[in-house]
Amino acid sequence: MMQNGGLKTLQVSDNGKGIEREDFELVCERFATSKLQKFEDLMHMKTYGFRGEALASLSHVAKVNIVSKRADAKCAYQGNFLDGKLLAPTKPAAGKNGTCITATDLFYNLPTRRNKMTTHGEEAKMVYDTLLRFAIHRPDVSFALHQNQSSDFRTKGDGNFRDVVCNLLGRDVADTVIPISLDSNRLKFKFTGKISKPIASATSKNAQNRKTSRSFFSVFINGRSVRCDILKHPIDDVLQNRSLCVQFCALHLEIDETRIDVNVHPTKSSVIFLEKEEIIEEIREYFEKFINDLFGLPDRTEAVKEKEKEEEENEENLKFQFSQIPILTTQSIKSIESFRRASTSNSENGFKLKSSADPKKRVDHMEVRTDAKERKIDEFVVRGPMKRPRGNDSDEEDVFENLDDVEIQMTQNTTELDDGVSMVSMASGLGGDRRMNESQDLGEDEDLLENGTTYREFEFESLEILRHQIASSASLSLRELIKTSTFVGSIDPETVLIQFGTSLYMLKFSEILREFFYQISILSFGNYGSYRLEEETPLIIDMLELIGELSETDENYKAFSIFRDPTTREEAEFLLGEHVELLYDYFAIKMEWMCLEGEKRRLHITEIPSLVHHYVPQLEKLPFLVASLILDVEYDDEQKCFQSICRAIAELFTLHSPFITAEKKVSAFCGTHWKPLIKQVLMPLVKRKFIPPEHFKSADIFVQLADSHDLYKVFERCGS
């Protein structure tokens, strides 16, 4: 049982032998264990734990309660532990045979560590994944997870493997599982497992599997769940060489206890064993033969392998010969590759992607800019991929980072911007694994930059056109006005006052933000951060129904009247479901199909993009974002698709007065007050980053209210 990802409560219970009352004082002592009786037992480890450190460590960071009953005891006994010590003598308690350990207020004495664990969903997911692996590995043992979520489960423990897989991963997976087995007397190991029947990687069935469910992979060595990539590699190699993939793979390797060392990592998730290379190679040969027999493919003969080896050697020699040609210097190769751009097709989205082969990193300190606050021209030019790792001691990297610091420096009063968001949390890693930006005051994930993650570059022709449109339509005079102006104050969330020279201007700030966030979306394409929606993620179908009902009472929302029809809502949900990968990969809008207990599988929105740090958009506008993705986006036209989605995102981030709360907060889902947000975050960013388009001059976006020079003349005439 678990609450708040284990921070509030984490309870583990079993129906084992139980703990003697006399042993309670030693339960949370360091290095106290009942698993070892003599030193030689270390050579034949068959239990999960043996060092006596887990409970001791837990009692130092949480409040631990243990209730245990042996089969021959009349009642159970309980004890409370703190810092490894029993707080009071044990006392009788109600309890079943076995042991129940409850940890509450995890990291109560380490506030910094506790604050870092704000994403309860990630912690809960790791617990779920762990129990899932053990439940599938041991169908003869009943496992249960309770956290009051849709992921709760319980297995019967009757030894029926198929029922367990069907219950946890679905009938489609369970029906395709086939066993594998290898027993080697020479190397003294036994390799067993179960995999789903391999399918071709390029089939529509595999694409559908990736959209609707996740793959499962687990490795157990001597009954212990471990991370063992070297055991995964031969399986991957054999499948990739044949363009195959499997959705389910559960492997188990049994090795003589004297030939394996589990005392490598504190979590015992890593192991080392003797004759590793020989074991892996034998598993590879077995699995290759297994796949060939399964599909009726001929075995690869030694002659074929020898021929492939010879071809690889010839290829290496050819590469060496080309490298000796003196005319092809690094500079000449760079010049050639900059003109040679191969077009490849993106099979999922139907878009053409151009890739450049120039891996050389550009050096910013060789560029000349007269104003450090100006946007750099390379934001509008599509470049080849480059890596920008932090922590490089070279002078070149130091200069690069210093220039970035000048570019993005911003003074903020963090005490006034205490963001009390309860529903939204920053998403790291998705999975991560993919978002970074040079501008730290924009909404990209800075942790990825520190980990050396590559900034994703795209060379879509349509993206180049959209960026060129932003640059070519820029008004230099308005740019100078905004950049050198002084912020006076806010009239309301959609209107602000600035001073330029001797003139006072009123700006339609909502229009500026709408264009500004569109520019961010285009220039930071595919590199946004994201906010994860916690608690109950909203259903797409519910939001469409909401705005459909809204169109009946408000003429301003008449365009959404089509969503009154349930059939239309179903079709709209299916339309978004077909493009979830595009929306998440390029725009950080994550939608997932979920099936709640007893309900139909529905599409939920779980993440939205983050364009600016310290700014959570008004989530009341989320239904309108969904509606715009359905009504305004032409998914078959690349340029119009990118442009309309970026416009929809910009509309979501634009401030609107109707959603400001009575406490003058941005919205009911955000604790930030709108005035400090505009003054300390949005306006400084607009001054440094915004590129005003020329048509703003004729659209009354900038309205001059007064000029002190003209006022002086009026006073002078009055005085005379």
Automatic annotation (TrEMBL):
Pfam hit, one: Mlh1_C
Record-level GO BP terms: mismatch repair
Location of the DNA mismatch repair protein S5 domain: 165-292
Molecular-function annotations in GO: ATP binding; ATP hydrolysis activity; ATP-dependent DNA damage sensor activity; mismatched DNA binding
Recorded family membership: Belongs to the DNA mismatch repair MutL/HexB family.
Protein name as annotated: DNA mismatch repair protein S5 domain-containing protein
Region span, Disordered: 347-368
CDD domains: HATPase_MutL-MLH-PMS-like, MutL_Trans
Keyword Phosphoprotein in annotation: no
